[in-house]
Amino acid sequence: MSLILTLLHDAFFAAIPAIGFAMVFNVPKRFLPYCAIAASLGYSSRSLMMHFDMPIEWATFVAAALVGFTTIRFAKKHLAPPLMYAVAAIIPMVPGTYAFNTVIALIHLTAANAINPELTAEVMLNGLKTVFILGALAVGLALPSLLFYRDKPVI
Fold it and tell me: Most buried one in 36, 47, 106, 116, CB count within 10 A?
């Protein structure tokens, strides 16, 4: 029961920034609920996979692909571009905490007079995690479009 409540909590609070960014990107009002649904589905599925010990990078990749497939379905239903839904829907999965920790550790590292191995390791760990999560978002979101909108067959 606790897992279901956590997933519902994640879904609700992922929908809020998705709607906000969709409004910033001038998405029409009638499409805002679909942006919220895609964001909720993506973020809560990533949380579910991470609950079962999947690394955040792979969970983000699968969740971004799920958002991509969902937004393509929405786009075909409403005859709209899929990126209208998808860009706002992946905003909650952007690794802001890891990027922030990378920058803070980098500032502490440059302010120190000597090389600190702990800070160097923190910069490397958080920086690489940020890069891999952003790559997973990009590739996961592009994958469904590459499969559905091809001029030539895959094989």
Answer: 36
The backbone torsions φ and ψ at residue 76, rounded to the nearest 5 degrees and listed phi first, read: -70, -35
Nearest to 100 by CA among 67, 129, 80: 129
Q: What is the pLDDT of residues 28-44, one digit of tens each?
A: 999 999 999 999 999 99
What confidence tier does 1 reach under pLDDT thresholds 50, 70, 90?
confident
H helix intervals, the chain: 2-24, 32-51, 56-78, 83-90, 96-111, 117-148
Q: What distance lies between CA 49 and its chain's CA centroid?
A: 13
Read off the pLDDT of residues 86-103 as tens digits, 9 standing for 90 and up: 999 999 999 999 999 999
Q: And the tokens for 149? A: 């909108």
